[in-house]
Amino acid sequence: MTKKTKCAFGATAPIDLKTVKAHLDQLIDHAFATALPIARIAELMRGDPRDYARLGNLPPVAEGQLLEQAITVLASANPDVSVFADCRLPLDPDFVERIRTMPTELIGKLKAAASGQTRHHYRPDLLVINGEKGTAHLIDIKRSLDSYDAVRIAHLRRRMLAAGISLPDLLGQAGSQVVLRDIRIAVVNIEGVRPDIDRGIWSLAELDHLIGVPDAAVMIVAIRKTFARRVAAQFAAARQVLIEDAVRERVAALRRHSGTTGGGACGQRRSRPGEITIGFARLPDDGSSR
Q1: 245-267: buried (b, 16+ CB within 10 Å) or exposed (e) per residue?
Q2: Which among 85, 153, 160, 267 could disulfide-bond with 185, CB atoms 3.0 to 4.6 Å apart, if both were Cys?
Q3: Contact 121, 160 (CB under 8 A)
Q4: How confident is the model at residue 118 (pLDDT cuts 50, 70, 90)?
């Protein structure tokens, strides 16, 4: 699905809007087959408390990856843009700090050498380039920003802005004729309801406008509902596996116990079928009555 360029990122092939739903269904199936298989869930359920923590993390991690892939598919259905889903943009740590006190409108005047030798890179979840308009969007997709404080969010934005400085040189090295005039960043907060677009924070409600695909947000909402429903079904199936395993183990234990005791209660000999004794009532040997 990807077409490799001379740089460290590949452009995704365009997707026909009519086939988007099929692509999204495949992504959901793949997520459950690889990240949330029943056997894996059951294995963690029967583990120790450390496994319980890992079990709780499985669904949100898998959903985050699914949402990134789904938005990539949706963006690829926009015929006016090129979508890059696996790129490493070099960034200068000094620029990250300089941007802290620099007006946003002056950031574009910084020049960076797009050197592949640097140890510092930023990987956007999505890079969307409109060659005709000369615009590029570096997009970072977050399932939720609840665990991000203001300092961490600000640092993420500065890293994204610093990485964007190297993008024109990278495209030139890749042989692209695109001339970028506007590089923008956006952090998409899927669970967020209050966007702060002036500071680069977008909510799911604005996704259609960001990637230029009608009903993109509606489709992501549908994916999340399907994912939640299938997670519940997958966990129920895993619990059923544990119940069936426990029943089999109990039956096997009873059979083993029966074999060691000869089948009698407390190891006592049981009368054979057809053997009975008949006689007079008797007193105990010590003469006491009952």
Answers
A1: eeeeeeeeeeeeeeeeeeeeeee
A2: 160
A3: no
A4: low
